[in-house]
Amino acid sequence: VPAGGVSLRRCSTRVSLEDVNRPVIDRIIRVDHAGEYGANRIYAGQMAVLGRSSVGPVIQQMWNQEKDHLKKFNELMVTYRVRPTVLLPFWNVAGFVLGAGSALLGKKGAMACTVAVEESISDHYNSQIRTLMEEDPEKYKELLEVIKQFRDDEREHHDIGLEHDAEAAPAYSVLKTAIQLGCKAAIYLSERI
């Protein structure tokens, strides 16, 4: 503390933790952290298979954004005192296997996986945005800004997947449906466990 007794710590306009709807915030931050963790593992699996291919730099660019998303949710978990899902060890393995497995189908398979996952996640983020807007848009302003930005990034990844021939992957509609069902199950479980 400098002379005069004034602290040099940054002031925050953040809402006090007592003012937030704990069940809603806990669920949102826990599941978003798990989702970003899983996305990182998916891209790690894709890079393990396709990292040296022509699509490697595209996957790496998307993965870098996902790393930033995960870092932010790690920070938000501390700020809001939210525990992570106990399923992280499972998502660690499942995400990598999904990423590597889809990449073994080639570039189109990896991009089909990206489209399916990112569409699911952006839809989920939209649902969270609606929930927070109904609760109190001013109270949750900072969290809303984060979720909206990440939703836009996920939509961009979705579009990149389409631009890189995701729909030409073998059994695209079956693959996309299966991955999206898995995403829905992962979201449901990670919100609660």
Structure description:
The chain is mainly α and 193 residues long. Helices cover 74% and strands 0% of the residues. The protein contains six helices and no strands. Helix 1 packs parallel to helix 3 and helix 2 packs antiparallel against helix 5. Residues 1-13 have low confidence and may be disordered. One of its GO terms (cellular component) is mitochondrial inner membrane.
**What proportion of the residues form beta strands (DSSP E)?**
under 5%
Overall number of domains: 1
CATH topology description: Ferritin
Q: What is the global morphology? A: elongated
Oligomer: single chain
Q: In percent, how helical is the residue content?
A: over 70%
Give the topology string: H per helix, E per strand.
HHHHHH
Report the structural category: mainly alpha
Mean pLDDT: 92
How many helical stretches?
Answer: 6
Q: Please state the second-level CATH architecture.
A: Up-down Bundle
CATH class: Mainly Alpha
Protein name: COQ7 protein
Pathway: Cofactor biosynthesis; ubiquinone biosynthesis
GO molecular function: 3-demethoxyubiquinol 3-hydroxylase activity; metal ion binding
Organism: Cepphus grylle
